[in-house]
Amino acid sequence: MHQDNTGWTIQRLTEDWVENEVTYVTMPGYDATVYDTAYMMGETGSVEFDITTLVAEWVGLQYPNYGLLVTNDYLIVSEWPSLASSDHDEAAWRPRLVVEYHESGPGVQSASWGRIKGLISD
Q1: Which pTM was predicted?
Q2: Inter-CA distances, 106 with 64, 80, 100, Å
Q3: Could you list the pLDDT tens digit for every one of the 122 residues in the chain?
């Protein structure tokens, strides 16, 4: 990892969870497979993940959809990186899922989750 970059990863959750009740201690289980890694350059920016394989697995019923685990590899404890949630006051900062699906073709063509804005704060 470069010092200026914050690497974010996407993994598949394997258990159900309740949005307003989950904490680091009570977070649901997750699969070790990393579906994608994206980097936020500098102190502010956005990240976008290619989760086509994961969405295809959900659509093909290979795995139930319990959601995504987003983690980062930032190691400087005094500066915590964060990403906006769906509750953010500014709609442009909220994460979004975009899926291109063709029922008559091979199924999921592409899926991305992100354009999430974030920041590193002291």
Answers
A1: 0.73
A2: 20, 41, 11
A3: 334 456 788 999 999 999 888 888 898 999 999 999 888 766 667 778 888 888 889 888 899 999 988 887 665 455 566 777 788 888 887 887 777 766 666 566 666 655 444 433 33
